[in-house]
Amino acid sequence: MARLLVRSGRKYDRKTDLHQPKGKTISSFQAFAVSLASRVGTGNIAGVAIAIAMGGPGAVFWMWIVAIIGSSNAFIESTLAQLFKVRGDHSYRGGPAYYISKGIGSRWYAVAFAILITVTFGLAFNSVQANTIALAFENTFGTGTIVTAVVLTLLTLVIIFGGIQRIARFNEWLVPVMALFYILLALYVVATRISMFPHIVRLIFDNAFGLDQAMGGSIGMAMIMGVKRGLFSNEAGEGSTPNAAATAAVSHPVKQGLIQTLGVYVDTLVVCTATAFIILCSGLYDTGLTGIVLTEAALSCEIGVFAKYFLTAAIAMFAFSSIVANYYYGETNLQFISGSRALIVGFRLLVGAIVFLGSLAALDLVWALADITMALMTLCNIIAILILGRYAIRCLDDYRRQRRQGFDPQYRSSTIPSIEKETECW
What we know:
Shape: globular
Order of helices and strands: EEHHHEEHHHHHHHHHHHHH
Largest sheet: 2 strands, antiparallel
Structural class: mainly alpha
């Protein structure tokens, strides 16, 4: 019998040390921060503004619906990512490509998803993030986009060549701080305009279900824009955040599944809603402005011209942290396809080039590309979690059983015998 040690106040089997990757592992909070960094970005500021400008206030309601429904997808995909994760050199690796390959047993399907997510996040989404930063600096400081492109590209390359440990440390402190300041600012706006709160809520629901909107066809546009921008923002069901969730060292897959579900609510129900209230309180949502320019104008209207400078700094931090996290999603999936060092280095340089070009591209082009690749990637992942979701439910049942017995839940591969050989880290 393996010798039992005591770690962190609970019994720990020495055999599990064999399943630990070399070097320092990623904590549950660090994995959450990496995924939240990807979620909390331009989708929460520029994306919400685009949804409201094109779909009306009713789009906010459909963003809420996407978050509520998507939270269950987030739980299942992140739990599956933990269940089927593999050992890497310095951290665990996992995500849809891994649970498709191990759980479904289809290598071609897994490779197809890996290619889609690499293109979507490493390239398409990062062009959106870079474009938003460039527009914000040009609108606020008059900075030439070429200057922003060069600086942003260099910073990106410095971070991503440091690996997941540097990515995790970078996001661990940056994301909570920037999200907190932005939320506090939004709450200040809501508090100072609290008398308008009932009107704003009524405006959202009227535009989502009103008879006039139905007759004019704007309800359909509100739904489309709310779903698209909501999915872009919280990423629930896309298959992106499981790549970060898999890196965490936890005692049970469900633990990381639950904390990743929290990320969906923080992203959409808190951060996106805060942006929506700022825009709707200002009354500028139907003036023809859109994207980051609309959000900057709305915030300046509410708290003064210095708000433009604050928001530019905020969007730079939000979007840059997303660029870094998005890169990691691409890298871990390229590792699945091939462990070639040259391939990874080439991808890092390509990401740098895309960040540069995205900073200079037209707004409509980068968002259209992101929507197309996001839809294809999400479809692949949803099919996979429909097939494998039963394993996440069985994990949840095991987790609840142990909690009812008063234990800190510990998962063992023998819990689900049919996939015992595929769950190598448990």
